[in-house]
Amino acid sequence: MGRRTVWWRAAAAVGAALCATTAAIPSAVAADALTPYAYAEGATTVEGATSSTGAVRLAAGETYRSSIGPGDKLYYRLDLGAAANAYVSATAVPAAGAAVASADGVRVSLQDADAHRCSYETARFGPTRSAHPVTAWASREVGSDEYMCQGAGVFYVVVERVGTAVGTGTGTSTGSASGAVTGSPSEGSSEEWGLELGFVSEPAVTKGGPTSAPQSWNSASPEGLSGDPESRRGGSGFATASPVAQGVWQDEAGIRAGETLFYKVPVGWGQQLYATAELGSTTGGDGYVGNAFVMSLYNPVRGFVDDRTANYGGEQRSASLDPLPPVAYENRSSLDDEVSGMRFAGWYYLALHLGTSVADRFGEEPLGLTLRVRLEGEAGAGPGYLGASEPRGVFEVTGEDQEAAESGATGDTLDGAGDGGGGDAETSGAGEGSGDSSGAGDQRLAMTVVAAGGIGTGSLLVLVLLVWTLVARRRAPVDAEPERLRPAAAPRGRHGASRGR
Fold it and tell me: Which of 12, 146, 316, 400 has the maximum number of C-beta atoms within 10 A of its C-beta?
């Protein structure tokens, strides 16, 4: 996954050969049937500057709205002290039903006054090729680098739009295809996207205690939760994520193709989070969709932790997060991003996205959705912060939070708002999947597509769909159940001094 910049090898080969005509393939999803993305209520609207000169200042603890066009590189200013860690997130929100390519996405970096990158991350739509909000994060961590990004001063949040509309895109990961992806922008990728920006400040801690990530922890998966599910409708953005506690939860309205539903779970210091999302079966339509569904996990500052995808062929399917370590302050020292991301107590967000391509095979009727959440371990004391976070309480779990998770009361912890407000005509959700396949046969399939270069666009699109189907089928034994094309995890970009991807 290379922090969501890597897709199937075969897909990369096909995409590189056909990007000029298939950078974005629209789906049959009706945009007006999807709930708009819910921005944080009361979020201030700001305009990104095209130069660091004149960049608007962002205040810690606040959430902002902005926008970004194709090829844009926008600057926002932070005034940071010498002691607190700073975390920024950028969620790009394309219009509902917009055509997007796998390589399209957003990159966010945090830079000092000398353009040194403290950290950066890129989030792309990936092989679902489905328009939905994607979120990347960056940080300035005190003490993580001896020379750069330390001390008080002016820092800049740099948000860039990447992908086919820009003209280039790369995939980087062990064993993955990489290189330039060029071509003319698609209609969808040439449109302006909305942006939601978050800025969280974390105070310093008292000295003492462990300073390195734990070398061992319980990585066994617990028994699955059973019992009758309780009804809980997912939210349409981070700000309106539906709180859930340990238990089995079911969205009675289901999930539509192109839709993303948000849930949040209060996780205390020392607790482990486990989550499984299940798609229900359907009798309508037929066929098979690879990377049809993705469940993504974000930490309290909206930093990406992990994701899992599932294919869909009309029968019930599930996606489960791999076991994650107990929440601990020292997890940030780990080189493993899944471990490093579990560095805070607070609300953890689950974003469940169903790709638009599902509608092409199975129609626009919603599919059943069940979420199973388990928390292991007793919540303990925090690291001993020397002050308050901004916003207040973002790194703690209170009794009120626990009650909200049981009852379903909504509210956004990041900006301290009450029930989140709705946005304008933009799609709901966040999250994306990734996958991996290999073999010389995949390369031959790509060459077959290249040979079709003289065929009209309509015929070529049909060939592309056939190639994707063949790639999916050739990866499985003849008698295999629909576990074919099971996505494999890959290293992701590290958040720390001058690291990222």
Answer: 12
* Reduced 3-state DSSP string for 420-460: CCCCCCCCCCCCCCCCCCCCHHHHHHHHHHHHCCCCCHHHH
Helices (H), 292-413: 337-340, 357-362, 399-407
Comparing CA positions, the residue from 184, 165, 127 lying closest to residue 5 is 127
| Long-range interactions of 228-231: CB distance < 8 A, separation 24+ | 229/370
The angle subtended at Cα 119 by Cα 118 and Cα 120, nearest 5°, is 140
Q: Residue 65 in contact with residue 39, Cβ under 8 Å?
A: yes
Predicted TM-score (pTM) of the model is: 0.76
Locus of tokens 């290293």: 491
**Any residues with CB less than 8 A from the CB of 481 and at least 6 apart, and which?**
none
Q: Report the amino acid identity of residue 148.
A: M
Q: Which of 248, 487, 224, 254 is nearest to 368 (CA)?
A: 254
pLDDT recorded at residue 471: 39
Cα 298 from Cα 118, distance rounded (Å): 20
8 A C-beta contact, residue 188 and residue 161:
no
For residue 261, which amino acid is it?
L
pLDDT tens, position by position, 264-308? 999 999 999 999 999 999 998 999 999 999 999 999 999 999 999
Q: Shortest CA distance to 292 belongs to which of 275, 270, 309?
A: 309
Residue 36, preceding peptide bond in cis (omega within 30° of 0): no
Count other Cβ atoms within 10 Å, centred on residue 44. Answer: 14
Which CATH architecture fits 9-204+486-500? Sandwich (2.60)
Q: Domain residue spans in the chain?
A: 9-204+486-500, 230-407
The label of the residue with tokens 């599930």 reads 318
Residues 400-459: pLDDT tens digits?
A: 999 999 999 875 556 544 333 333 333 333 333 333 333 333 333 333 333 333 334 444
Three-state DSSP state, 70: coil
Chain-centre distance of CA 497, in angstroms? 22
Run of H or E including 61: none
If one counts every other C-beta atom within 10 angstroms of the C-beta of residue 294, the result is 30
Residues of the chain with pLDDT under 70: 1-32, 165-189, 208-209, 411-501
Could you tell me which residues come within 8 angstroms of residue 36 by beta carbon, excluding any fewer than 6 positions away?
96, 236, 422, 423, 424, 425, 426, 427, 428
What is the rounded distance in angstroms from the CA atom of residue 101 to the CA atom of residue 166? 12
- Please name the fold of domain 230-407: Jelly Rolls (2.60.120)
Cis (ω within 30 of 0) for the bond into 391?
yes
| pLDDT at site 217 | 86
The single residue listed with the structure tokens 């939210």 is 235
